[in-house]
Amino acid sequence: MTALTATLSLPQRRPRLFLAGAAALWLGLYQLLVPFSEAVVRLLAVDRGSHLGSALQFFLYDTPKVLLLLTGVVFVMGIVNTYFTPERTRAILARRSAGTSHLLAALLGVATPFCSCSSVPLFIGFVQAGVPLGVTFSFLIAAPMVDTIALTLLFALFGWKVALLYLVVGRTLAVVAGWVIGRLKMERYLEAWVREMPTVSADVATGGLTLAERVQAAFAAVRVIVGRVWPYVLVGIGIGAAIHGYVPQDFMARLMGADAWWSVPAAVLIGVPMYTNTAGILPVVEALVAKGAAMGTALAFMMSVVALSLPEMIILRKVLTLRLIATFVAIVATGILLVGFLFNAVLAG
């Protein structure tokens, strides 16, 4: 009992020792993923070369891998985000010029783990703080689409080149789309109650936290975010496993290959009515690419799911008129189409 109490209190008493031990444990578990998945398939007496065996191995390998990556990234970003709270994010953007703010908004969107729907309350807070509408949209686009979870999973699944290219084009899309919306001067198409909100100060007190307190905040982030996301991860990996095990490779290559010019627009149209997050959709993207789908087409599908989801549009309707929503969707969808074609052209070359 004493040893258990000491272990549980280690993050408070010796946070650095705890972080070192947690990192070593995480790396050790990550190294065991492949032998674990293969051993379980053998234990279940399933032919590894069969459709079922291939699907099972994919599911048993990807599920702990994605959950480990997700937990690790959320924990690290939970510590980082003790320096970048929503209030401080709002304050930083409110103090900058419009040109600088677009770039900064896209960068903060990468650093902050807000999904498309949870970004909407921040949207209202930004308007109250006097942040320009276009800058607010740059953040609204970047936050769910180019966050650290997406980049880490992309790096783990497809390598640093794909992750870096996605970061560059995703941030560019957020900046350009926000800039275009800002230039259109569409503030009048906010709902009346949003326009009439009193402007509030964006100043935020910046009290210091100890490392132990930041570790506790990271634990809280893991409980909230991973606790909310894991069902999407299981569903996404389950779909990916079915694609990996049962969908013929030549069929997927014909349907979503780079040679089919219509595949990118079709992927965007399919993705918009759906709703999940990057952790849930990336296993599906991984399986699609493994079966012959073009990378740009698969990523266009993912971007439309996380940046233009139907639930987000429904929530945005509470603060935006239909005209502004339509403008937002048209600009972002055009950008996603260009990104999909660009990825297909660059990675096929």
Written description of the protein model:
The protein is mostly helical. The protein has one domain. The chain has helices at 2-13, 15-31, 33-43, 51-80, 86-94, 98-111, 119-128, 133-145, 148-158, 160-183, 192-195, 211-246, 249-256, 263-271, 278-290, 295-307, 310-316, 322-348. The protein is globular, with a radius of gyration of 22 Å. It starts with a helix and ends with a helix. 42% of the residues are buried. Mean pLDDT is 76; it is low at 1-8 and 200-206.
Keywords:
349 residues; mainly alpha; 0% strand; globular; disordered N terminus
- Summing up helix and strand content along with how strands pair, one would put the structural category as mainly alpha
Number of domains: 1
Largest sheet: none
Which descriptor suits the 3D outline? globular
Give the percentage of residues in beta strands. Answer: under 5%
Topology (SSEs and partners):
Layout: H1 2-13, H2 15-31, H3 33-43, H4 51-80, H5 86-94, H6 98-111, H7 119-128, H8 133-145, H9 148-158, H10 160-183, H11 192-195, H12 211-246, H13 249-256, H14 263-271, H15 278-290, H16 295-307, H17 310-316, H18 322-348
Q: What is the structure about, briefly put?
A:
The protein is mainly alpha-helical and 349 residues long. It has helices spanning 2-13, 15-31, 33-43, 51-80, 86-94, 98-111, 119-128, 133-145, 148-158, 160-183, 192-195, 211-246, 249-256, 263-271, 278-290, 295-307, 310-316, 322-348. The protein has one domain (12-198, 209-348).
